[in-house]
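Dear H.,

Thanks for agreeing to be a second pair of eyes. The structure we're designing against is below in token form, covering all 438 positions.
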């Protein structure tokens, strides 16, 4: 029987319900990775009359402090938001020797100093990966992976709601209120969306990043913060004419031993990676004296992406408290079985094929016949100018296997239709559409 890890979840809104969903969906993977059965004993909400999707046996309460006081609960997961009730809950949980996982950047930006101090005194862990940039693992990256660097700069797009609004205004000409309403419907925005559009949410996150990058408490109240509330669509239009996009940026850098930091809207040339981060995506660029420049990109808000980060923290704590030393090395509890392998020839994608043929009638028909027999369908065909009776033909196919492409090409080479071996490349993403997020 796997050991149980008993948790209490405060909040079943966007993030809390995403956590419950992923705990159920990924149950077997989680068990393999931790050797623990993660069981929600109690979930706390405001309104007990709302309908909730919960596994059998989960108790529902509106008394959030009962999670901190329940001796069976080992980890308190705080997903309520706000700073008042959340602060009481988190401090009491730590006081009672429980580790805490939270997505609450406002709480940690404004009360982080006392929370981390108490956690250190009580020797408990605070997991807060979900508090900055949603699914992007920037907390672990700064805390562990880049710990051997002296960090010189951290900058990024840290608020999904603002970025969504700016992208919709830029790409689809939406007005501000419509784009904001969509962001709210998608579960990106804070309960009070002025935190998003006035830049406070990005500033909360920047405060946490400064703490991690330089080991300094930068008072949140001292950050220069400007949001996008008053943005005029004309500026988005004019910026485009200069090849630029307007983005809400959080930036902190070291200048002569001091930290210069703020949140502000800025123009960025469209060729820069940050300018190409669209929709609910966030990105963070870190500069360090060993790593150089590192760029992380991913969904910065929303139900599942945020639950992903919460789960990462929960699993790390579950592993830490389980008696399974080997799991620390591979990430799994048991010795690893051999992988079942799908040969790459069976992988499916669109393909690019460049064939060199004699420019005579019927060549295209012969190629089309072989491709049809191999069940390959063309998306586009291009014929370039001929050279000495030889003409390059370029085929972009719809999705097919590498096996089908290579069989067709081999047959055409053997039949003498191709004058030289064809050049074949897989196409990743779609060539016809506008590039996706980056
Ligand atoms: P939400 O949808 O508003 O959900 C909040 C949940 O907390 C609701 O279930 C609510 O109960 C409950 N709650 C609020 N106050 C309570 C209290 N005093 N006692 C008991 N229950 C209480 O919020 P969310 O979007 O999930 O965000 C939660 C936290 O994650 C916030 O700190 C937010 O900043 C952070 N975060 C959110 C995202 C995102 O994409 N949404 C991403 C990263 C981080 P009812 O259901 O009864 O109203
Ligand atoms: N409201 C936040 C955002 C949620 O839009 O980025 C993620 O922290």
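And this is the sequence the design step returned. I haven't edited it by hand at all.
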């Amino acid at each position: 029987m796997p050991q149980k890890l008993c948790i209490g979840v405060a909040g079943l809104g966007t993030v809390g319900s995403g956590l419950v969903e992923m705990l159920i969906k990924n149950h077997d993977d989680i068990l393999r990775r931790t050797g623990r059965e993660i069981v929600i004993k109690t979930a706390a909400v405001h309104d007990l009359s709302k309908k909730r999707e919960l596994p059998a046996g989960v108790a529902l309460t509106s008394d959030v402090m009962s999670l901190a006081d329940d001796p069976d609960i080992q980890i308190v997961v705080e997903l309520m938001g706000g700073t008042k009730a959340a602060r009481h809950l988190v401090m009491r949980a730590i006081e009672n020797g429980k580790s805490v996982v939270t997505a609450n950047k406002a709480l940690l930006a404004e009360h982080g100093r006392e929370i981390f101090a108490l956690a250190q005194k009580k020797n408990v862990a605070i997991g807060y990966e979900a508090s900055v940039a949603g699914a992007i693992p920037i907390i672990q990256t700064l805390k562990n992976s880049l710990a051997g660097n002296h960090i010189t700069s951290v900058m990024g797009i840290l608020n999904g709601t603002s970025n969504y609004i700016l992208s919709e205004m830029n790409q689809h000409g939406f007005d501000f209120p419509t784009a904001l309403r969509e962001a709210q419907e998608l579960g990106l925005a804070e309960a009070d969306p002025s935190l998003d559009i006035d830049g406070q949410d990005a500033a909360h996150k920047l405060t946490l990043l400064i703490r991690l990058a330089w080991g300094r408490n930068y008072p949140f109240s001292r950050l220069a913060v400007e949001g996008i509330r008053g943005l005029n669509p004309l500026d988005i239009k004019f910026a485009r004419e200069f090849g630029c996009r307007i983005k809400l940026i959080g930036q902190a850098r070291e200048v002569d031993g001091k930290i210069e930091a703020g949140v502000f809207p800025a123009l960025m040339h469209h060729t820069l990676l940050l300018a190409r981060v669209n929709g609910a995506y966030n990105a963070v660029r870190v500069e360090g004296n060993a790593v150089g420049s590192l760029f992380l990109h991913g969904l910065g808000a929303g139900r599942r992406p945020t639950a992903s980060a919460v789960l990462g923290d929960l699993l790390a704590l579950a592993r830490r408290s389980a008696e399974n030393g080997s799991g620390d090395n591979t990430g799994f509890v048991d010795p690893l079985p051999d992988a079942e392998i799908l040969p790459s020839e069976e992988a499916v994608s669109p393909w690019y094929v460049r064939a060199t043929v004699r420019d005579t009638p019927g060549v295209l028909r012969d190629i089309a016949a072989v491709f049809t027999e191999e069940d390959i369908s063309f998306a586009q065909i291009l014929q370039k100018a001929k050279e000495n009776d030889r003409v390059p033909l370029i085929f972009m196919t719809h999705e097919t296997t590498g096996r089908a492409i290579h069989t067709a090409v081999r047959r055409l080479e053997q039949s003498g239709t191709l004058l030289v071996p064809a050049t074949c490349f897989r196409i990743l993403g779609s060539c016809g559409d506008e590039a996706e997020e980056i």
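Two observations from my side: The domain at 347-428 is CATH 3.30.70.260 (Alpha-Beta Plaits). The longest strand covers residues 244-255.

Warmly,
E.
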